[in-house]
Structure formats: structure tokens, C-alpha cells
Amino acid sequence: MIFQKNKKKKLKKKNSTVEMGTSLYEVNKGLVEKNVPDLTDEEMQNKKTLIIDFINNTSNQYYMLLCNDKKDYTIFRRETNENKDFLDNLETPDRDRLWNVLIDECLPNRGRTKSIELTENQDAVEIWISIESESYCYMFFPYDAAIIEC
């Protein structure tokens, strides 16, 4: 079988068209944009437990919010009290501060938040944001292993 370069075959199924060679990410972008409503303020507050539990379970000092598609990388450094055990520090308002900066400043500055969910293996939080009528996947994950302090 010979494939001609730059020719895409279209598959039709129930009022939708998917081009061969389209990545799963591109399909998801379209599905999220068309089928997932923006999160309400109440739904965003309900995601607070998910984020805080994720921070408690990963207990890192550094986190990254990454959208590779947009080349958008943000690193968060959590302040810790050097006189306390790091895990004890997670019970302080610092963990709420990270949540507040993420939800109140970082996400709204980018666009409209559509979804916040843990990944299947629970090593990151997948956040879908709509920016100018196109949805993008942002990942929020622990980043301590990538930071080298000298």
C-alpha cells in the first residue's frame, strides 16, 4: 500500500469527521472545546480538595504547570518553614496559598477552565483551559526532581 504525503483520509461517524493522522490530543482538544462547559465557581471550589490532596500525597517543594502545546511553563516554589518537618508544613495555610495562586491567578490569566482531574496514574493533575475558542491541556505536577540547587 502506498501512502501519498499530505493527503489525509477522512472517517465519518455520526455527524463528526476525524482525519487520519490526527493525534488523540487533537481529538480531545476538539471534544473538550465543543462538549465540556466551563467550570462554575462552585465547581472550582470543589476541585480544591483534589489539588490539596494531590499536594499532600506528593509533598514536593516545587510544582510545574505545563502546556507543551502553547510552550507555557510555570514553576511554583512553595515556602517551607525550615524548623518544621516538611510534611507537617503541608497542614499550614501555605498549601492553600498554592491552591489560591493556581486557581485565582494562573488559570484565569490563561483562559476559561473546563476541567480539573487527576491523571489515571495519579502523578499529575490534568487541567483543560479554553483560550480564544480552542482548548489546551495543562499538566500540574511535582517538579522537585528537576530542580538543582547549588
Give a description of the structure.
The strands form 2 sheets. A 5-stranded antiparallel sheet has the order 4-3-7-6-5. With 150 residues, the chain is α+β, with helices and mostly antiparallel strands. It has helices spanning 24-35, 41-46, 48-58, 86-89, 94-110; strands at 10-13, 16-19, 62-67, 72-77, 112-118, 125-131, 134-142. The protein starts with 9 loop residues before the first strand and ends in an 8-residue tail after the last strand. It has 5 helices and 7 strands, in the order ββαααββααβββ. Residues 1-16 have low confidence and may be disordered. It has one domain (38-146). 33% of the residues lie in helices and 29% in strands.
How big is the Rg?
19 Å
Overall tally of structural domains: 1
Helical percentage: 25-40%
Structural class call reads alpha+beta
Mean pLDDT: 81
Biggest sheet: strands side by side, in what order?
Answer: 4-3-7-6-5
Describe the main β-sheet briefly: 5 strands, antiparallel
SSE sequence, one letter per element: EEHHHEEHHEEE
State the total count of DSSP E strands: 7
Quaternary: single chain
Shape: globular
* Number of DSSP helical runs: 5
Q: pLDDT below 50 for ≥5 consecutive residues: which ranges?
A: 1-16
Distance between the termini: 56 Å
Beta fraction of the residues?
Answer: 25-35%
